Amino acid sequence: MNILITSGGTKVPIDRVRFITNMSRGTFGSKIADVFYTKLFNDQVMNRNFGNKITFFMAKGSKRPTRQSVDNEYFDSGVDIMKYVEYSTFDEYKAGIEKLLSEEKFDIIVVAAAVSDYGVANYYDGKYRSREDDMCIKLVKLPKVLPIMRKMAPDAVICGFKLLVDSTEDELLNAMEKQIDETNVDLVIGNDLRDIKADDHKLLVMRNERINSNESVYAYHKYKQPPKAERTLKTANCLAEAVVDECFAALKRKNGAEP
């Protein structure tokens, strides 16, 4: 099993010392990697399946998975299934994705990174000097990376993400369906910043279940984190576990087996 997980946020430079970024710190991506690692590590120990591998493509300075450092203390095979690759800017992210997908075939790709939608047209290869009057920065649309992934990895299960702010459930579902229509990914994970900030994280998972080239059926399921007072060690990563289970189920469906 070969898995690629992207995590963290991209930066768009204004000049050589300033940049535009987003608030992603890679927390959820690292939790998803932890769950994948635990499941593949257990499979490796129980079945001696040394073909398992996870590539964690992360923003520099973002959160790393934690399970690897714990489990490796008890695993003496000398085989490390977690590989780290870093990026910083949008250009590095896009180039890194293209390099990874040209060099390896992945079974599952989880695109949890928050990727910039706009770049700076008037980038200055130096440092803009402080001045009394205003300075205008022109933003231009950046290319979408998900369609590139789909083209380069046609057989992989690709799981995209859609984050909205103060949305209704219907608005979020419509945005998720649009992402499937535009990119033909297998799964989309939808959530809202309002819920994350309120420590009431909920997920909508939309599955792309195509009947033929002209018609699609979208099934979706809701997952909710337990209230803070009721959380246990077992339920702490329940939303990340839901994403991982949905990815494995999608892989079974893609291979013609019932999940």
Mean pLDDT: 87
Structural class: alpha/beta
Shape: globular
Order of helices and strands: EEEHEHEHEEEHEHEHEEH
Sheet with most strands? 8 strands, mixed
How many separate domains make up the residues? 1
Query: Level of helix content?
Result: 25-40%
Topology:
Blueprint: E1 2-7, E2 12-13, E3 19-20, H1 27-47, E4 53-59, H2 67-71, E5 82-87, H3 90-103, E6 108-111, E7 118-120, E8 139-141, H4 146-152, E9 157-164, H5 169-183, E10 187-192, H6 193-197, E11 202-212, E12 215-224, H7 238-254
Parallel strand pairs: 1-4, 1-6, 4-5, 6-9, 9-10
Antiparallel strand pairs: 2-3, 7-8, 10-11, 11-12
Helix pairs in contact: 1-7
Question: Can you describe this structure?
Answer:
By secondary structure, the chain is an alpha/beta fold. The protein has a single domain, classed as CoaB-like (Rossmann fold, 3-Layer(aba) Sandwich), CATH 3.40.50.10300. It is built from 7 helices and 12 strands. Strands 5-4-1-6-9-10-11-12 form an 8-stranded mixed sheet, sandwiched between helices. Strands 2-3 form a two-stranded antiparallel ribbon. The chain has a two-stranded antiparallel ribbon with strand order 7-8. A hairpin with a 5-residue loop joins strand 2 and strand 3. The radius of gyration is 19 Å and the shape is globular. The two termini are 17 Å apart. The relative contact order is 0.14. About 4% of the residues have low confidence.
In short:
The protein has 259 residues and is α/β, with parallel strands linked by helices. The protein has helices at 27-47, 67-71, 90-103, 146-152, 169-183, 193-197, 238-254, and strands at residues 2-7, 12-13, 19-20, 53-59, 82-87, 108-111, 118-120, 139-141, 157-164, 187-192, 202-212, 215-224.
